[in-house]
Amino acid sequence: MVKIYSDYKDRADFLTVYVREAHPTDEWQMKSNVKEDVCYAQPKTLEQRVAIAKDFVERQKYPLPFGIDDMNNAADLAYSAWPERLYVIDERGHIAYAGGIGPFKYDPQEVRAWLTKRFGPVTQTSPTVTPSAPTGSAQPGGPATAALPAATPATADGTR
Amino acid sequence: MSRFWKWTLGSVVGLLVIAFAGLSFMAGSPKDVYGLVRYALPHMHRGKLHVGEDAPDVKLLALDGSSRFHLRERTGSRPLVVIFGSYT
Predict the structure, then answer these.
(1) What is the CA radius of gyration of chain B?
(2) Which of A97, A141, A152, B4 could crosslink A88 through cysteines, CB 3.0-4.6 Å?
């Protein structure tokens, strides 16, 4: 997603919304979280949630605009967001693209395809943003680790 | 217990063991099977928003931890790509 952001940020807006943790230590922690030292309990307060979001942005040098879901999980509930999901909202405020539930149906390339269809392909190749180390890989049944896109730059272009 | 029921029960238990072993292999470990069933399965049916529908507005907190904004404030002039996720 970071590469897609880099390619299309002059033509579309982007917003990352941090929702409740997918694999906290007190729920369904995964080995890859331990391996990558991404170990957090599920936040019980908004301050804890903000702290984890800040950790993510700082450690991953995450460049996308950022918002945090409230403790009532309103964004998660409205968008069926957990553990990870992608949308495109058009200028009229309508859903233009609704991605599937992650990690298996979380597909940034579908977003790129939407943007390409709308704005044409971007030929720019210089990676202006290089996310830091990934925190894990997708695992069956769960959003594996690092649901947020910058944390899983498993492919050459920085998208998953 | 009749022979028929013994075989039936044995077959069911055998299938369950095979299914559990298969899921454990796919998910990574038996513990992950529990996580899959406990945390992931309840969400599999979610995702009721469809293309063409109004995007719900939600109030979000900015990264500074104090200011708030509405998601729909970010829509209107250009398409908005929204990425939902967490750190783990």
Answers:
(1) 23
(2) A97
Give the type of residue at A92: R
Could you tell me which chain A residue has the CA closest to the CA of B48? A80
Q: Beta strands B68-70 and B59-61: pairing type?
A: antiparallel
Residue B17 distance to chain A (closest CA, Å): 18
Question: Which of helix, strand or coil describes residue A73?
Answer: coil
Structure tokens at A128: 């202006």
CB spacing of B86 vs A148 below 8 angstroms: yes
Task: Collect all residues of chain B within an 8 Å Cβ-Cβ radius of residue A30.
Answer: 28, 32, 35, 88
Give the count of beta carbons closer than 10 Å to the beta carbon of residue A80.
18
- Taking a C-beta distance cutoff of 8 angstroms, is the pair A140, A134 a contact? no
Alpha carbon distance A136, B38 (integer Å): 21
CB contact under 8 A, A33 and B88: yes
- Chain A nearest CA to B77, separation (Å): 6
- The pTM of the whole model exceeds 0.90: no
